[in-house]
Structures are given as C-alpha cells and as structure tokens.
Design goal:
Layout (H helix, E strand, L loop, with lengths): L4 E6 L2 H9 L8 E4 L9 E4 L1 H5 L8 H7 L4 E3 L3 H15 L6 E3 L4 E5 L4 H4 L6 H20 L3 E6 L2 H10 L5 E4 L4 H4 L13 H9 L5 H6 L2 H8 L1 H10 L16 E14 L2 H21 L2 E12 L4 E12 L2 H14 L7 E13 L13 H19 L25 E4 L1
Helix pairs in contact: 4-6, 11-12, 13-14
Length: about 425
C-alpha cells in the first residue's frame, strides 16, 4: 500500500480550549489576547465567530474591537493548552507511534502500517487514510470537545496543505491521482515554507500558483532562490520524501531563545539589565535542559519607533551560564543601542550549539570558574522547578518590579533544523 500521511490541525485551538473551560464562550465571538498594560495587547488567537467578523491574529485589541464591538477578550491559559494538546496526542498514539509535532496544535502522523490494523477491508491508501482521519476527528471531538481538520496525502507537504483546505472539522484528501487538480491550482503562498518574501519573488516572475512552481525551470529557480528554489520545485511536484519522525526522535536543536516586549521602554542600563538577566536565565536553563552549550549569542532589539534589528557575537569558549550569556548580550546592546528613544522589545538567542559532553577542558585553572557557576545555576534551576520561578531572584530584579512581572517562559522558543 502507498504511504499514508495525515496532518491534524486543531481548529482555533486556543479559543476553543477556552470554551471547554467556560462553555458560555462557545457561541460568542472571543479572542485570546495579551495584557494591554504590559504592552502585549494584541490578538493571539480568535474563534470562528470573531474570524468571520474580520478579526485577525496579531492585530491590536482596539482594531479587533472596531471590527467586532461585542468581542470578548480572555487572557491566555498556557497550562490548559498544554494539557489539552497532550490529551489529543494520546488519542493519536492509539493509531500510530509515528507522530511528529508541528507546534502545539498540529501534528503529522504516518499511519501506513496502521491501516492494515484499523481498516483491513480498504485496499486504497487514500480511502484508508480518510477512514482513520474520520475516526480520529470523532474521538477528539467526543473526548476533548475540540474539533480537528485532517489532511490525508502521500507526503507531509500535501497532507499539511490538505488540512488547510477545508475547516473546521473536516477531512480532505490530496492523493497521488488528484494532487495536480487540487493542489496545483492553489496560491504558491499556501505551500509549506513559502513565506511572504519568497512569494513576492516568485509572483514577480509569474509563478503565482503551486502548479506553476512545479513546472518552472529548475535553473531559473536556482538562480532566483538558490538551492531552496530547487527544493520547493520538488515539493510542489509531489516529490517530498521526508519521513514522519517519532515524537521522541526530535531533530537537532538549532537555536534556543527568548524575547519579550517590556511594559515600558528600557531607557537606562539598569532597565536593560533587569530584563536581560531574566531572558538570559531563561535561555541558560533551557540549554541545560537540552544538555547543550552555545558558541554564539544573538540579541534582537526593537526600538520605540518599532524598528527592529539583530546583532551577534561569538563566545571565547562554548558556554551556557546566564552570566556568560548576559555579558555577551549586554556588550552587544551597549554598542548597538537605538540612537533615539528606548528599547521596546528585547530578545536573546543562543546559536552555534554543541553537545555538552564535547566541552574542551582549558589549560588554565582560572578558566574553570564556569564549572562552579554551572553547578550553582543547575541548583537554582532545580529550586525553581520545585518551588516556582520566584523562589530565587537576583537582587537587581527588585529594582523595578514592573519590568520583571512578565512571564519570561511564555515567549521562549526552540528552533529545530
């Protein structure tokens, strides 16, 4: 039987999750929104009713209110989202162990082997995939109250594309027999990993649909987009052969970072240090969690005029202590501060990652100090895990409580290759 890949996408996940907690939110337009006072006042997610009124993710709350005056804003509950996401994945595990997460609300599933167990009477791969997808949708709805759209195809790219084609609560099949009729007519921007800049470049040369991308000249695409252009052509042509990885076979971590928008502009060095230490501690703890060291520190700055830029520098040796990350990041900020106004948003990212078992031993005793700091910070990590993030705090954090009220765990990200 041909390969069967599913892509599951929980519909309006964050807003729907809130409705499972408070059923009164089910039939009214709602948006999960950030804290206006902390300058995180944007729409993080919305339900179908708000979407129908034109509310968009990422827009300011006042803009959403203009479009939908009766909209209800609710704060995010990340514990709830994590719990529901785990419940849904437990349902997926009934059908296969080949489950690859794509964010909290999306997953790929390879059910090629499972088809013989769950629907041995169906010999056609596409129809077997549809049968299992429909079963999964019903189980998710019955056991969690959430709805899921599932795409069925012979590879990951078209399965993802199919799940986006019909929402909410639907199964869509893009098979090897029909992918040219279904996928090729769609805008090229619908293809996975084709972002706005790539879309603009392709559209400029008349490549506006997935079909035109598949039929475009390979040498031209290589000239326009480099090797990524050739890869996108193969993907559009149905030649994606990437496997669905098991959940415990995660890809290699490429970078670990964290960022935040401060509740007020950071003007002085003291302001910057308060937020920067919190970010560096978060990144440092995640590096230890992943058993990684970093060679490079990257700082992202957005000024009060909303102009954004990044700067990076290398470390003298691989490290992950908060002090080392802070020292490098603060040097970067000092030499690259906005010329006017303050800093609105700040991020820290650790790149050039390597396994902590490969750390090179120094010839000089004074360089062994990071080991002592590493041990101390590891103990602090454990205390925070057991007793909460506020059980141990640097003295500087008490200088301005408003700047440290942000949950610095929410926005942190791990990028995979």
């Amino acid at each position: 039987m041909e390969r069967i890949v599913l892509h599951s996408d929980l519909n309006n996940f964050y807003a729907s999750a809130e409705a499972t907690k408070d059923p009164s939110l089910k039939n009214i337009p709602i948006a999960v929104a950030g804290d206006v006072e902390a300058r995180h006042g944007i729409v993080l997610a919305k339900n179908q009713l708000a979407k129908a009124r034109g509310v968009k993710t990422g827009e300011a709350l006042w803009q959403a209110k203009l479009k939908c005056p009766d909209i209800t804003f609710v704060p995010p509950d990340f514990e709830l989202y994590s719990r529901l996401s785990a419940e849904v994945r437990r349902i997926y595990y009934r059908y296969t162990d080949l489950i690859e997460p794509f964010g909290m609300d999306e997953c790929w599933l390879d059910v090629t082997g499972s088809a013989y167990l769950f629907c041995p009477h169906i010999k056609d791969a596409a129809e077997a995939g549809r049968y299992i997808a429909d079963e999964i949708r019903e189980c998710v709805k019955r056991e969690t109250g959430l709805t899921v759209s599932v795409g069925v195809s012979f590879n990951k790219t078209f399965a993802k594309l199919a799940s986006d084609m019909k929402k909410p609560d639907a199964t869509t099949v893009v098979s090897r027999e029909n992918f040219k009729d279904t996928a090729w007519r769609l805008p090229v921007s619908d293809l996975l990993f084709v972002g706005p800049k790539t879309t603009a470049k392709l559209t400029r040369y008349g490549i506006s649909t997935i079909g035109r991308l598949a039929e475009a000249d390979e040498d031209f695409l290589r000239l326009l987009l480099g090797k990524n252009g050739v890869s996108l052509k193969q993907t559009a042509s149905g030649l994606d052969t990437a496997p669905v990885m098991r959940a415990y076979e995660m890809p290699r971590v490429k970078s670990i970072g964290n960022g935040t928008t401060a509740p007020r502009d950071l003007i002085t060095d003291e302001d910057v240090k308060i937020v920067l230490y919190a970010l560096c501690e978060s990144v440092s703890a995640r590096l230890r969690e992943q058993k990684l060291l970093c060679r490079t520190v990257c700082v992202g700055i957005r000024d009060s005029h909303l102009f954004s830029y990044e700067r990076q520098c290398g470390l003298t040796r691989p490290d992950r202590t908060a002090n080392a990350l802070f020292a490098a990041a603060f040097r970067l900020i000092k030499s690259n501060r906005p010329t006017t106004g303050g800093i609105r948003s700040l991020s820290v990212r650790a790149t050039g990652l390597c396994d902590d078992t490969r750390e090179q031993i120094s010839l000089f005793p004074e360089d062994d100090m990071p080991c002592d700091r590493e041990q101390l910070e590891g103990i602090i990590d454990e205390l925070r895990r057991k007793h909460g993030a506020d059980v141990v705090k640097r003295g500087i954090m008490f200088a301005d409580k408003r700047l440290t009220d942000t949950d610095f765990g929410i926005d942190r990200e791990v990028m995979y290759e």
